[in-house]
Every structure is written in structure tokens, then in C-alpha cells.
Amino acid sequence: MLKIGLTGGIASGKSAVCQLFSQYDIPIIDADIIARQLVEPGLPAFKEIVLTFGSNIVQQDGYLNRSLLRQLIFTDSAAKKQLETILHPKIRQQLSSQSQQYSSQYCILVIPLLIEADMQDLVDRILVIDLSPEQQLQRLCQRDQLSPDDAQMIINNQCARHQRLSIADDIIDNNNTPEILAQSVTKLHQKYLNLAE
């Protein structure tokens, strides 16, 4: 089965593209969802994170305090590295095993940190969702109710746009209307079916 690695900067429209692909009954395996499942209370990754970052990272309800963790990794590169060391191998393993459970012609592995986590070897092709830096900043501010400075800091924490584009086999330009986005996905769906044969 053909494995498509879908990636893009934060707020680039990865979820919208996934929804469009899922209309064709294409399996979508999302690294972010896997990451959330891995850190459920009591699981090994949860325990490792609490051991590493201390019990103040756990909320009253017993779940991880995501916003505190996010703040920590955006402001402390050593903490970011520690968290990645705990999660990335487990995410990689899950992406690999889940992608073998389907019998469709192709599947999509949504890996926002495809380059940063060095997971290109998990996929056959790389699809980058791209949009202009101005649009990205504007969408992120609106979506997460952030100031432009905070949003820009998050964007700067990811790999640069040109790095993503340089490894792309396919690019969806998401600066346009939802209709144009849907057309782009339909075209790629046909292309991937042909390649899978």
C-alpha cells in the first residue's frame, strides 16, 4: 500500500485536507491523535513524562496539563528534546503498525513534525500543505486566540517553510478558496490511485 506523508506548518490546513481525503474512504493515521493517546494517564509515556517533568505537569483530573507542557517546550529547548525522546519512538512505532492494518490502495499518515522528527522513511511520498507566511500567521492568531508575537514564536519553533517544500513530492497551495482546495485533493486522490496500481 502506498503511504502518503502529509505535513505542513501549524494552521496550514492539514485537518481540512484530511477531511477531504476521508470523503474517499482513505484511511488517515494522525500522529497528533497517536501522541494524545500515548499520554493517557497510567500509560508508559505518561509515567515517563511525569518522572521527567514533575507531578505539577498533571492536572487535578489526572490528565497532563497540555498548555503547561506546550509552554515549556516552546521556551526550553532541552525540555523539548526530552519530550521528543519519550514520544517520537513510540509515535513512529504506532504510525508504522497502524499503517499495516489497512487494505486500501493508499493511506495518509499525518505527521506535522515529519522533518523535525526525521520520519520521512515511514512514507513513500510527501505531501506538503503550504500557505503564505502572512496567511499562516493570521490563521494561527484567529484559531488559537494568540497575539501575533506568540503565534510567530510557535511558527519559528517548527522547521522553515522552504525545508518542507524542498522535500515535497506533492504540494497543495492552501491560499485559495475551499472549492479550489477540494479540487486539489480530488486531483491528488486520482494521482495516488494511479500510483498505487
Shape from CA axes?
A: globular
Classify the fold: give the CATH topology of the largest domain: Rossmann fold
The proportion of residues forming helix, as a percent range, comes to: 40-55%
Query: Can you count the beta strands?
Result: 5
Strand order of the largest sheet: 2-3-1-4-5
User: Can you tell me the number of structural domains?
Assistant: 2
CATH top level class name of the largest domain: Alpha Beta
Q: What portion of residues belong to β-strands?
A: 5-15%
Tell me, rounded to a whole number, the average pLDDT.
95
User: What is the succession of H and E elements?
Assistant: EHEHHHHEEHHHEH
CATH architecture of the largest domain: 3-Layer(aba) Sandwich
Q: What's the N-to-C terminus distance?
A: 9 Å
Query: Which parts are unreliable, with pLDDT below 50 for 5 consecutive residues or more?
Result: none
The CATH superfamily of the largest domain is P-loop containing nucleotide triphosphate hydrolases
Secondary structure category: alpha/beta
What is the gyration radius calculated from CA atoms?
17 Å
Figure out the total of helices: 9
Instruction: Let me know the largest β-sheet.
Output: 5 strands, parallel
Layout of SSEs?
Layout: E1 2-8, H1 14-22, E2 28-30, H2 31-38, H3 44-53, H4 66-75, H5 77-99, E3 106-110, E4 125-130, H6 133-144, H7 148-156, H8 161-166, E5 170-173, H9 178-196
Parallel strand pairs: 1-3, 1-4, 2-3, 4-5
Helix pairs in contact: 2-5, 3-5, 4-5, 6-7
Task: Tell me about this structure.
The chain has two domains: 1-27 and 104-197, P-loop containing nucleotide triphosphate hydrolases (Rossmann fold); 33-101, no CATH class. The chain contains nine helices and five strands. It has helices at 14-22, 31-38, 44-53, 66-75, 77-99, 133-144, 148-156, 161-166, 178-196, and strands at 2-8, 28-30, 106-110, 125-130, 170-173. By secondary structure, the protein is of the alpha/beta class. The protein is globular, with a radius of gyration of 17 Å. It has a five-stranded parallel β-sheet, sandwiched between helices.
